[in-house]
Queue: 3 jobs
Job 1
Amino acid sequence: MIVDTRSCRSTEADDLPRRDRAKRIGAALRRHAQALAIGLATLPAVALALRFALHGPGANPIEEITHVTGEWGLRLVLASLAITPARRWLGWRAVAPLRRTLGLAAFAYAALHLATWALLDHALDGAAIAEDLTERPWVMVGMASFVLLAALAVTSTRGSIRRLGAARWTALHRAVYAAAALAVVHHFWLLKADLRPAIVHAGILAVLLGARLAWRLRAARRSS
Amino acid sequence: MKIPEPRESEVTDEAVFLNRREVLRLGAAAALGTLVAGCPEGGQADPPDPLALRRLPDVAPAAPAFRVDEEPTSFEDVTSYNNFYEFGTGKQDPAREAHTLRPEPWSVVVDGDVGRPGRVPLEDLLAAAPLEERIYRFRCVEAWSMVVPWIGVPLARVIERFQPGPKAAYVAFETLVDPEQMPGQRRRVIDWPYREGLRMDEAMHPLAFLAIGLYGRVLPNQNGAPIRLVVPWKYGFKSIKSIVRMSFTEKQPHTSWNDLQPSEYGFYANVNPEVDHPRWSQARERRLGEFRKRPTLPFNGYAEQVAGLYAGLDLRRNF
């Protein structure tokens, strides 16, 4: 077999500038990961605002705001939970701080979702809000998810880690798994015949939680 | 159907209900749409403009007994916010996707205990009575509502012509099944065809209506073209769209939502603020276009006319 080593070498040489550029882009992405994540997380809200500005509010804007903020709150919790697997499976070390960024973005959408419900849907009608909270299991589950997210958002600072101690802080922040699961149940519970969107979210959550379970089992086996 | 020129004065014009700003906005949106769409040939087509639909001629204006004294919901909202799972489960899906439906020619199969069964062309079915307008409240089980100026014929007049027999205690309706025309049917969200039904005395009630149009024009596809049921005192899902079959039965027919979730959707499905949906309240509703919710009325405000149909019936159990 004749191997043309010359051509091989020359290809490698041609690739060098391209690899260089890729490396530079990679470095820039790593440096600006935080800003990029924040920018991407605000897109759904911006898109909704643009849609209202360009096409008018539509037939039922309160419903649409409720759905968009709720869906993105849930998706961003899932995105935040996907950071650790991304780090371990893909070796993306730079994404680690995004867990907190995306978690806070999720909380922001959840807060908008809750505000839409109380201020717009119920127009601050205390009796109607109380009835929802005491008689509608789906609302209760959503509220429970929000309360957990709020607790995590409040304790998301470095100061909190110091005050609580790393062990207690980590234990507290495991509540994000419960918040995500409650949010998925909340979504499931309000759908009618078409359950597909909730099934997709539940499936993603199952993979993300399953990965953590597998790591724990493996770690336990190794240490025993 | 003969199509003489309509006498404009007889039909509620959508312009009456669209305020000036809305008309301007619609116009601007259309102009912007043309600019943005850029290439009229190829690419994704804009949803068809329901305002381009044919006007219905010779429509008698709504009699006082059949017109609610409330502002009708805007034409745009009525034709862009629909539950019609045959075209997708999103509210905007039907307006976008329903252009694949071919409402002409159309016929309705009539069978069961009936003197004149057969396949009835839509034109013949409509010969039962002159077209008239009805301005009704429409309340969805999802707690939103609207007011719609429908055009059509009383259901009772159509049924009479079929001469139902003594064993006809119910009338069952079916929607078209054709995944080519109704792409939403490629998924089995519902056990197609969509089915609905009424007790015979409900069907013969003067308020029960078969609509072929709204706002002076033929029904847009997304609203159930070419012929749909309108039962204003019941939740919207009873008002079955794009009807291809009417069967006169002795037993209570199967109905789609009742089959799907019997604990949440009853056969009667009368609007009732006292009986909550198991997951949400039915006490109040949001009228499309309004901010604050309003109280829901028993039988959707038609209690005086229809409550008698249910005398002695426990409405909590027969929801």
Note: Chain B has a mean pLDDT of 89.
Job 2
Amino acid sequence: MRGILGLLLLFALLPFLPLGAWGAFLLDVGLFILLFTALALSWDLVARTGQLSLAHGAFFGLGAYGAGLMVPHLGTLPALLLGSLLAGAGALLLGSVTLRLHGLYFAIASLAFSEVLRTMALKLPFTGGPIGLPVPPPFGGGWPLASYYLAFAVLLLAVALSLWAERSSFRLAQAATRQSEAVARVLGVRVVRVKLLSLLLGSLVAGLAGGVYAMKALFLNPYEAFSLGRAVEALVIPIFGGLYSTLGPLLGGVVLVGLEQALRLWIQEGYLVVYGALLILAILFLPRGLLGLLGGRRG
Amino acid sequence: MRLVVEALETGYGKAQVLFGVDLRVAEGERVALLGANGAGKTTLLRTLSGLLRPWRGRVRLGEVDLRGLSPARRARLGLGHVPEGRQLFPLMSVEENLRLGAAFLAPGREKEGFERVYGLFPRLAERRRQLAGTLSGGEQQMLAIGRALMGFPRILLVDEPSLGLSPRLAEEVLLALRAVAEEGVGVLLVEQNVALSLEVAERAYVMEHGRIVLEGPSQALRQDPRVREAYLSL
């Protein structure tokens, strides 16, 4: 808990730290850490029910496009909210059809879902198609730190949801569903409902993250917004940091996204090779992620 | 409240496993369901708890026809289940495993459930913070029973509780089930350990190849030459 609060405090104060010439760059890195960590937490929320989601890239994209299309008409906050609700609607649609499926089958269905949405973003008449969609910055660009603090707010929400799920009896329902669905059911746990609620909460957060991303990137295209790479990043971060926890994805996000940005700066072209090698080492030697180093238990 | 099973038939895919099973268990009653491996005992339990759909026949709990009801709904109506092989959550503490059994109760009832389970199994109270995976086999079985009791079932289905336990522990667990029944819970005990089950249960059914072939008071079954020969090797 102290670790979580410490990290959050660091992010809250980051814009005011004396970072000199590096300030602007570090603030950008910080923003991406905030967004992708929130996305990772929202993925972990679903993973806690034993479902491997490859649709988080799609929820992110739904939020991004939803917010991007609405922000010129409605303003920043309503647009973010609508983008998030759009992602939530997508999750309910996907979940109500597929959540009776187990692990691998759900993963494949969620992958298909994400491909369908990308195709729709390419073909629909109002999305800008393959050319892309320009998005105005938050609050008309009047406040330079707006997107950073919006990202911070998304992470706060993700952490709050994750902590709630970890500390309420919902955690038991999630863990039981993950470990043995049949036993959970005969004990009276409504497993489909537990899975659907987890997916809905996760998608709302992922959609918000996507919306803030759109306002930061100022430009969306379907390949970028619905990329499978983002869905993979959403699951790599919790695995690297420590699954089924709040601190794990938080640590994983700070280290991995930070590392990715740093490597891109130092090594440039071949940075993904080093990044991949580091991931392999982590999986080989840290089977429980960074949290395993700290000696936490999971269950 | 009674659990009444009438002419139940079911199976997996095209393979029929149960061929018209009739059975009843009343509250407070101890009933054993005996039979060799593959007789269909576990299939029957899975059908009763709603994990498997019946092809034909009826299952009623009190006045309620359970047809089409989900396992979670049945648990809420008062049908408890202690699954074969205990199926605890090994990385959760004893207390967390128990809380799971009460997942659907109002928080106030949970406390009552803890008192009841810890009263029945004082050893679980001593170990409430320990991870379930670190308990001994007998304690794990008690925890599995306790977990099911947390939901205040009226009828409790218990699948092979003596599996993998030493004879002494098996006896201890089965005697605990007698205490459970004395609190008014109907116990349907599914066992391969016929001698022990007939001591604990008041009535028993013997199942072979998906059919009930014998039923009666335990006393009578113990004297029945077919039971003596096939199951008690006397």
Note: The beta strands of chain A are 133-134, 219-220.
Job 3
Amino acid sequence: MKTFLVGGVHPADKKISADAAIEELPVPKIAYISMAQHLGAPAEPCVAVGDKVKVGQQIGKATGFVSAPVHSSVSGTVKSIETVLDLAGKPSTAVVIETEGDEWMEGIDRSETIVSEIKLEKKELVEKIKECGVVGLGGATFPTSVKLSPPPTATPTCVIINGAECEPYLTSDYRVLLEKPEQVLIGCEILMKALGVNKCYIGIEENKQKAIDLLTKLAVEKNHPNIEVVKLKKKYPQGGEKQLIDAVIGKRVPSMGLPVDTGAVVQNVGTTFAVYEAVQKNKPLFSGVMTVTGDCSKAQKNFLHRVGTPLNEIMDYCGGIPEDAAKIISGGPMMGKAISNIKAPTLKGTSSILYLTEEQTKRKEEGNCIRCGKCVEACPMSLEPYLLYKLWKVRDMDQLEDHYIYDCIECGCCLFTCPAYVPLLDAVRQAKASVMKIMKSRPKK
Amino acid sequence: MKKLIVSQAPHIHGKENTRRLMLDVIIALIPAVLVSIYFFGLTAAHLVAVSVLSCVVVEFLIQKYLLKGKSSIGDLSAVVTGVLLALNLPVCSPWWMILIGSVVAIGIAKMTFGGLGQNFFNPALVGRVVLLVSFPVLMTSSAFRAPESKAALDFNSKAKLEALVASPKSDAFSGATPLALVKEELAKTDESGAKINTVKKIMDENPGKFSYSSILFARNGSAGEISAIALLLGFIYLLVRRVIKPYISLSILLTVVVFSGILWLANPERFTDPVFNLLTGGLLLGAFFMATDYVTSPMIAKGQIVFGIGIGVITVLIREFGAYPEGVSFAILIMNATVPLLNKFRPKRFAGEAHKK
Amino acid sequence: MLIIFTIASLVVLGLLLAIVLFIVAQKFKVEEDPRIDIVAAIMPGANCGGCGKAGCRAFAEAAVKDGLGDLFCPVGGNATMQKVADALGIKVEEKEPQVAVVRCSGSCDKRPVTSVYDGMATCSTIASLYGGDTDCKFGCLGRGDCEAVCQFGAIKINPKTGLPEVDEDKCTACGACTKACPKGIIELRNKGPKGRRVYVACSSKDKGAVARKACLAACIGCGKCAKVCPFGAITVENNLAYIDYTKCKMCRKCVLECPTGAIHEVNMPPRPAAVKPAAANPATAQPVKPAAPAGEVKTPANNQ
């Protein structure tokens, strides 16, 4: 069993919704489709108010290299193009569509048949993935086509599929692996072809034994000799890109470098499935699998949601917000975002609605650092969070840089483990942003 | 609708907290306290109780009236200091001495620097060392052994205490620790100035004090040094609970064995053997519980090992060449001062060479 | 004898070391324009960075090397600048003294809290996470980043209102708080004649209805103030009014006109019972010394 070596923590597993099959959520009456669903420049709306759109029709076009087009998730009339607030209350432009029926674009294969033959060529594949607006669904929503076009200095040697799902509670990737295993395997083949490599690893944590068995079996049965399923130890952040590469192929991403510098290109399970659907089924990315869960949640579900569905509608569909929920999180409890605006629409990368009770989530009062060194021990990037915290308090930017603060992956292990409840990561995040700004402003030599 | 909580990730926290860690240390010290109570009865219980109580009260009063801050006694660190201080004192220490120790430990060594986590020196050890240099006779010659003396141990009877101090050789219930005895006897000279004793002779003359069975389970020393096995039990508990890492303790013990072993091989008449050095005095208590104090020890393994080696070397130097029979406390305090420097050791970088500006 | 020897040897040793020190000091002496020391001595020595240099000495070096140019020491003000100019034998233009102004009046009672922020209590942390714990995404977060950076103790969060208040006697207009505020609501404005100023105490660019819902004291961008202003000093952009302090003649018409009381006036003489245009002429108005630092004269609309 493989794992990354440095640091890490062991939060309780809590995969409560693991056995809930993926259900389709009802199509929203009004869909608010944000143009900023990916990392990079937001898309530009390419429809006008009053236009009729179909499911899968492009409504926003990419505005740069690191950008992705946006497609309608419903059919109906464009009601308005306005500013909507995301779940953290930050504004972005969105196309608001009033749903009428459910008419899909022609050319999208809605059948369940599995298409295994990859007809497109390498370049066409990347182009197709780009056209379909596929972005990384592991959290960062980085446009997939960009990852598939590595800089000429790097030579990719393998694809690593991230099925670790190391965050507690989340089960969407697990369900995709269980319910769409063949599609994921074909997705792997597509990624390999698009990158011109002939090795693919699927990293899955040990607590998902069923998925490991199923994929290992299917990889043999369906003749995917280049795909290897790797069992990973249950440890957070096993699914962090740098940690995953370290665990699977034993190489470390250089500081400030790209993951592809090690030869590995990491893609998430959801992304791989989206790639399959985009290439083989001609279906752009306008839906995704998300988990509704939490110890106090009224339902434990995995849903296929249409992008643009307001979160509060999903919450209502699952019986409403539980009374003792004090915090609602989109994403996992270690790296997810707290929701302050429950009316925000879902995005491509929305992977969960997680309810936590006050007892579970309320931060305890900050105590004195007792210099136990547990944060240093837990940091998977070999940083010294306690020191970074202290240096940030006195704004010593030079020292912060000397202590590699820019290496921080913001995984949250330090704060999770700190016995004195010092808000280490809150400070380190600020410090990192400030230091990065200084570093970028420096003239390049 | 209820107002939602919003915060930065992570949204959950591990089970560890300062209070729990301190509680674990207290639990780990229980065997040593129990052994002490077994041998000395209520006297030992009284010692621990007075020490803990005075430490907690001193911290509470300072926090409330001098620093005017929130009460910090809830984190149990004062209790830990109290227990450790008690275990570092002779069992029949008078109450006023314990009180002075507590005031020094908490008031001077800890709160002056800003409370928990801010101090440079181990509070309990500072308390002990201040008492050691202030009341050397009470601190070194009033260590007890032998259960039959229970009746005689009326700690508050000043007359009895004075009697005991006056007759440190009355081995039945009091006496010098093995280390003190060796030091004292080795220093003896005849009229011409030549040494009259060798280590072997001393050991042969005092069989009760130097047999290994007695050293392992019941030896002379301060309250916490009575039983090596009890201390080891506590140490193992701390390791299992992942409260501490073994680097500091093991490097101290290994260094003491190797260094004293070299000296012993060079001159067995003059120097005591490594096993004796390992098991006597406050070495185990120091290595397991005092040197591993989070606040006053380095953060990462490299620093911790250097820290341990330093303590080991200084301990043996003081024991074999210094004026005091025992040097663990001094060694730890000296190395405490180097911790800020040792914290300059950095973890091995995750990836790549150092980034160049 | 021993005593004499001891004293003698110590004296000799001291002399020897003194000579060594002297030689070293001479050898490694850095040649420097002596005027730098002179200018540095004139500087207030706050090392606040308000001039854009790293500290007062850096200011002095720059002033000696390149002349004063745009350099201005906000702490010392015109007096210091004049001294520096005299010392260097150059001329310097007078500048209007400035003061930090907080453009938010969303106090706790006017701006309901809608979510509970939990974590490190600094404004920058909150701002990087989300809009803030009220529905206003532009207003003060009240965690006191400005207070923390102010070296002069001139800006403090008032626990009652949750907003920072500037002590204009202490404020040197170094601009540290304007940079520290992640919402950019603090602005340096001319102190104005006799410390009198009129400004819009709101930064919300939300549409009127949204802004109003989030905060009772918000500027809703209605534009009434701009219409009533006889000097064209007020512009409304992005649903937010802004008073150009270089054009404002402090007639205070806008203050009365504002439906939400978002326009504040400071250090103004009490308004006559009947609104007379006389107040428009501050030169003839009786000078009223502010009783307390930053004592705001409450306008009817701003009565809390």
Note: The longest strand of chain B covers residues 4-6.
